[in-house]
Amino acid sequence: MSWNKKGGFSSDEAIEAANKAVRNFWYNTEPLLYAAVEKKTVSIYPLSKDFSQNSWMIFFVDCANPYFQGILDIAKLWNRQFGRYKVNTLFVIQDSYSYFSERILIRPLFESLVLQFPTVLDKSNMIHHGFQIKIAPSMLLVHEGEPQYLADLKAPTKNVELKIHDFLRKIDPGLPLRPAIEHSESIRFAQDMISTRFMPDSRVVIEETLSEIKNDKIHLVGNWIQDKESVTTEDPNARIYFRANHDQIHIFARSLSEKEKVSRLEIYLDDLPIFDVFGGNDLILDDEGNSYLRIREGLLYEALRGIPKGKIISCRPVGAQQAPLAVYRIYFRNSK
Questions:
Q1: Total domain count for the chain?
Q2: CB within 8 Å of 52: residues ≥ 6 apart
Q3: pLDDT digit string (tens) for 155-172?
Q4: Rounded to whole angstroms, how far apart are CA atoms 166 and 6?
Q5: Shortest CA distance to 256 belongs to which of 330, 331, 329, 322?
Q6: In 10 A of CB 207, how many CB atoms?
Q7: Count of CB atoms within 10 A of residue 294's CB?
Q8: Domain membership flag for residue 161
């Protein structure tokens, strides 16, 4: 692990230069550390005594993944439990999509996620490389600059919590710690999901008119622009069609509207509005019989759950000419 706990900067000016270089990517705190490439190796340098002289649970996560909310809930719980023993919490967010590096675009996302901890957007995933993090989600326990324990959070979280107990009791054997509890149900839920990304892919078909909806394809009809990460449209008549082979659907999308800030994606089953019983947490059902998602920042929206298999799902970007949107990924899962 290329961790330099003693620093490596020769002057206060160098530390300030490092702070200035990364400050735009830190939230709820001044920069705590800095990742730099040296001789083809990424080294991590502390920028704050608060980091190098205390204990930290560092969560490495992808906020565009369905497991994120489960990790956030666990982090809040552990922060309450272990924060009283001076164990701090840091979120390191993967640089999953190119727009993440634009602070004016990512800041509203972080604010909507209500991230109460020190948080850093890991530009080019340099911090991941410096700490040699190869799995996500994961948690690295660090004490006074020294890594203590790396946990795969897809494993049972009760075992991770017990490891934190062991660490704390080495410092103070008499700590009155509450019993460890398993909290990984929501993370296991996300593990069962499969997804289709809207990069050029054999499963994504762009066509002028809809022909046949195949079981293993996602059909894009109308004027869509495809790049290596997403599909975007300003065409209010554009459509996304696919057959429901899973009973739960999540959509990762964001509005591209600079003025409206909100885009609308209507969703239908066999060209009929969604019944309340099939609506996900983020699906809005209005009095006029419309069913839609209000797309704002790049978030994962729960669209449908418990839907009958074999139904044809259509997504319609209503008002896309005024409020264009980008769709990055659709997640599918069977509840049983």
A1: 2
A2: 5, 7, 46, 144, 145
A3: 788 899 999 999 999 988
A4: 26
A5: 322
A6: 12
A7: 13
A8: yes
Digit-coded pLDDT (tens) for 35-69:
988 878 898 888 888 998 999 999 999 888 888 88
- Domain end among 164, 191, 218: 191
Instruction: Say what the pLDDT of residue 119 is.
Output: 92
Max CA pair span of the chain: 70
pLDDT in tens, 171-195: 888 888 888 877 766 565 555 667 7
The mean pLDDT of 317-322, rounded to a whole number, is 93
Residue 239 lies in a domain: yes
Strand 146-152 to strand 284-285: parallel, antiparallel, or no bridges (unpaired)? unpaired
What local confidence, expressed as pLDDT, does residue 5 receive? 45
Q: Domain boundary at 151, 175, 191, which?
A: 191
120 located within any domain: yes
User: What does pTM read for this prediction?
Assistant: 0.85
For residue 96, give Cα distances in angstroms to 61, 106, 136, 292, 329.
10, 12, 12, 26, 12
At residue 1, does pLDDT exceed 50?
Answer: no
Phi-psi region of 271 (alpha: psi -120 to 50; beta: other; left: phi over 0): left
Q: Give the residue numbers spanning the domain of 46.
A: 12-191
* C-alpha to C-alpha distances, 333 to 23, 28, 92, 248, nearest whole angstrom: 38, 34, 27, 5
Torsion sign, CA atoms 116, 118, 121, 122? negative
- What's the alpha-carbon Rg for the chain, to the nearest Å? 22
